[in-house]
Design a protein that fits this description.
The protein is elongated. It folds into two domains: 12-66, no CATH class; 69-188, Immunoglobulins (Immunoglobulin-like, Sandwich), CATH 2.60.40.10. Helices cover 20% and strands 32% of the residues. The longest helix is centred in the first third of the chain and has 24 residues, at 13-36. The chain has helices spanning 2-10, 13-36, 43-55, and strands spanning 77-87, 91-100, 106-113, 121-123, 126-129, 134-142, 152-160, 164-174, 180-188.
Length: 232
């Protein structure tokens, strides 16, 4: 009896409160879609992302752990992934702040691969950095006014120095947005530490495309690396 009295005293307040919450959620979803051009992720999508993070595995990268063996030293090194949300007639950019951690001068070159590579403007396309010097390479794309809302384009940007680096960049077109610019720090450092999981044929300390290709038995004056048979 007391319960029925309590419900009667509240009247339509619980239903009005739930309607208010639903209206706020719909407003948030509409605002997100207008800004990014894509639907707001569902609770299920967020749950899946959380499980991946907890498991230590995202996409093609192996699960992390105290005994996990990383990719071979001669494989390209990931710089991560990023998504830029911009509107028509705006510009999206990524700035790579590169530091040459070596004791010698090194040239860092940049390039874009993939079918949409021609849309990216690199400035400059290479940096000549002395020991411990730092420079910036910018990658920009201009969004035309005819770009459809919701369009997504993925770009693969490469930096080649002491190591080969790659960055996966997605540009998403929305109805509302401003110019976008992200900054990525790159420490292009030689690795003089030989780990237990390293392969004996690794070109140390710099396995990347920016090093001078050595001849078997001849020491590279730039890196101090002396290739053995099979090192290339």
């Amino acid at each position: 009896m007391a319960t029925n009295s309590a419900k009667g005293s509240l009247g339509d307040l619980p239903a009005a409160f739930m309607n208010l919450i639903n209206a706020q959620m719909k407003l948030s979803a509409d605002l997100f879609e207008s800004l990014t051009g894509q639907a707001l992720p569902s609770t299920g999508d967020l749950t899946k992302t959380g499980r991946k993070l907890v498991a230590g595995s995202t996409g093609c990268h192996p699960r992390s752990g105290c005994c996990t063996i990383p990719p071979p030293c001669w494989m390209p090194q990931p710089l991560g992934e990023c998504t830029s949300h911009v509107a028509q007639c705006k510009t999206a950019c990524v700035r790579f702040v590169v530091t040459n951690c070596d004791r010698i001068k090194r040239t860092i070159s940049a390039e874009v691969s993939g079918p949409a590579a021609g849309k990216i403007t690199l400035s400059p396309t290479s940096l000549a950095l002395g020991p411990q010097e730092r420079g910036t390479i910018s990658a920009c794309v201009s969004i035309p006014d005819s770009a459809p809302v919701g369009e997504k384009t993925e770009y693969l940007i490469w930096l080649r120095g002491c190591k080969d680096w790659y960055f996966r960049w997605t540009v998403s077109v929305g109805t509302v947005g401003i110019d976008s610019c992200h900054e990525i720090e790159v420490c292009d450092c030689p690795d003089y530490v030989h780990h237990w999981y390293d392969h004996f044929y690794c070109a140390r300390p710099c396995p990347g495309g920016g090093r001078t290709t050595g001849t078997v038995g001849v020491t590279d004056p730039a890196t101090g690396f002396r290739p053995a048979a099979g090192n290339g």
